[in-house]
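So, can you check these tokens?
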Amino acid sequence: MESKNLWSTYSTEQLEELNRISDKYKECLDAGKTERECVELSIRMAEKSGYRNLEEIRSSGEKLTPGDKVYAVNMNKMLALFRIGKEPLSHGMNILGAHIDSPRIDVKQNPLYENEEFAYLDTHYYGGIKKYQWVAQPLSLHGVIAKKDGTVQKVSIGEEPGDPVFVITDLLIHLAQEQMEKKASKVIEGEKLDLLIGNRPIEEVLGASDEDGEAEDTAAADAKNAAKKAQKDAVKANVLRILKEKYDMDEEDFVSAELEIVPAGKARDCGLDRSMILSYGQDDRVCAFTSLFAMLDITDAKKTGCCLLVDKEEIGSVGATGMHSRFFENTVAELIAMTEGESELKTRRALSNSRMLSSDVSAAYDPMFAEAFEKRSSAFFARGITFNKFTGSRGKSGSNDANAEYIAALRKVMDDAGAAYQFSELGRVDLGGGGTIAYIMANYGMEVIDSGVAVLNMHAPYEVTSKADVYEAVKGYRAFLKM
């Protein structure tokens, strides 16, 4: 089944819309480099479109009616948006589900140390990465510091033009003969992924008075005295001084901090023809943001529409903010209570009668590594949204396998909407494999299929997508929500 490159098919008006969507998408990638940032950004966009906090509505005793737009948030890392349809909720929903976590490197809870006058943060990588890809490039630090007094301080260092950046060092090629003989999985090991954050001792910073000859303030003097007591940790002490000044943070506060290390810099157009986008985190934010765009665009639908953005997919969808949690099920139960009256049976009906696109990326065919793909069953750039009937690995292990009737219905919906689509698998049968949240939602008995955007360099610090596919994803997701 042949599909064609879409660029030659677009009208001037379609190209203008495509560019608007691509520019908006790049802005979202820049603003949402962590799951918390994605949720915060999505809530701002939703509220601007008239969505209200479900908890506030529930507390007021208000009932929900068709056309109402609400959202529910879980621990600032998981978000569900609903637009109440004309049909009863127990008849089912049309759900777009994507994940907003991406492979990265996390800072440990007791991370700060000094070694030979270098200050480092000890780390633990998150998700499936090729560790050697993360060395010798500019990195930024994002997250929150939660303190004992209940305050939460946001952290973002390395993104603004005047910000410093950080790096994980690599061995120079002149001394790397033994390193180069190692397997790729061992060239850089997990314990070598520590982040270099400083080299200047505290005395060097505080030893001189300022231009006016004024004496050091009390805090600076205390910090200097502390450094003198432990000369070997003078660089670490200077880092702590900076953290204290900027975030009122003590070393113990690392214990209750969530700090994520991600590539520094903005999403960029890729290629002389500007046909592609290069950015960190497009798995799976390319599907999350296109799902969000489609959800906010829909003004009228018979079925209740839902956009579900979840955390922890890259490590198995576990924990209180992963898809295995009961957050979504509990939220649907609240919606049933506020529309049809509290009923466990109707909640179960709402879930089992629903249809879902598990909006997750697929591997784009890469001719540089053609041996890893089966070409007839691969996703290609600029061919439209990608459907994966099944994922899993080898003999479809761990897969949700969508049934033929659902796929036929989706084909009609996409064709009627003029949304381009293709079907693919993730690599050769005995080589490839992957998973999404599809199989979890299928446990409710609903119809589910994986549907997303093809990506080059998946799970690398910088991933590549086609602007045409981003555009077609928005079109396809809009059509699905009206299904």
